[in-house]
Amino acid sequence: MEFKVLGPIQVANERLAYTPSAPKVKQVLALLVMRANQIVTLESIIDELWGDHAPRTAVTTAQTYIYQLRKDFVVELGEECGERIIVTARPGYVLSVPEGSLDVHNFERLADRAHACSTAGDAEGTARWTQAALRVWRGSPLADIPCGRVLQDYVSNLQEKRVSTQELSVRAAMDLERYRDLITELRSLVMEYPFNEWFHTQLVRVLNKAGRRVEALHAYQEARVLLRDELGLGPSHELRRAQQEVLGSAP
């Protein structure tokens, strides 16, 4: 059994995949998955679903969502699912799953290997493990769920870890002087994270290293205009320094 949250939420076994259709049932499942093998209190479920505007029937309704999940697990994934996976544990419930069944844990394990290689000065290993970690992702975390304030904290944290791993991957590739290979990747990253100046800076640098000075200056100007028009900011010292590196690289 696999539980996937790095993209649209999904529960799958070797035969088929299941995703709840009701939005709030999805939210409950997501909260259980993000706290797998830990007690998720009924209070946390209610906070996620309704925040400060919980109805009088919140407890009963939340328990109904748990019942619906158990029922769906049995119908969609087999009799062995249900009570065995979602366990009642006062004051709430536990999603009881084996190690390695959550994509988020697999991502974190691979990212940890990449960081260990980076600390050891192993650029090849860092590049290999960061790419393996990033391949686990299928899109934005919990992409098909209207997250409440509890899940939103998890989503923000996962996004930060993903950006950190992407930055580590770029650093490793630059250490290995794979400049041309990085151009397409960095162009995609600056589109995905338009206000991340570090990615803009590296794009300017790799274009320059690849001998594409005009494109490097154009990338700098695009970043400068974006920061000015959208945020009212000038380019950072590092971004300006990357531009000077391009101008200083003329014969």
TrEMBL record:
<keyword id="KW-0804">Transcription</keyword>
<dbReference type="GO" id="GO:0003677">
    <property type="term" value="F:DNA binding"/>
</dbReference>
<dbReference type="Pfam" id="PF00486">
    <property type="entry name" value="Trans_reg_C"/>
</dbReference>
<keyword id="KW-0238">DNA-binding</keyword>
<dbReference type="Pfam" id="PF03704">
    <property type="entry name" value="BTAD"/>
</dbReference>
<dbReference type="InterPro" id="IPR036388">
    <property type="entry name" value="WH-like_DNA-bd_sf"/>
</dbReference>
<dbReference type="GO" id="GO:0000160">
    <property type="term" value="P:phosphorelay signal transduction system"/>
</dbReference>
<protein>
    <submittedName>
        <fullName>SARP family transcriptional regulator</fullName>
    </submittedName>
</protein>
<dbReference type="InterPro" id="IPR011990">
    <property type="entry name" value="TPR-like_helical_dom_sf"/>
</dbReference>
<dbReference type="InterPro" id="IPR005158">
    <property type="entry name" value="BTAD"/>
</dbReference>
<keyword id="KW-0805">Transcription regulation</keyword>
<dbReference type="InterPro" id="IPR051677">
    <property type="entry name" value="AfsR-DnrI-RedD_regulator"/>
</dbReference>
<comment type="similarity">
    <text>Belongs to the AfsR/DnrI/RedD regulatory family.</text>
</comment>
<dbReference type="InterPro" id="IPR001867">
    <property type="entry name" value="OmpR/PhoB-type_DNA-bd"/>
</dbReference>
<dbReference type="InterPro" id="IPR016032">
    <property type="entry name" value="Sig_transdc_resp-reg_C-effctor"/>
</dbReference>
<dbReference type="GO" id="GO:0006355">
    <property type="term" value="P:regulation of DNA-templated transcription"/>
</dbReference>
<feature type="DNA-binding region" description="OmpR/PhoB-type">
    <location>
        <begin position="1"/>
        <end position="97"/>
    </location>
</feature>
<keyword id="KW-0902">Two-component regulatory system</keyword>
<feature type="domain" description="OmpR/PhoB-type">
    <location>
        <begin position="1"/>
        <end position="97"/>
    </location>
</feature>
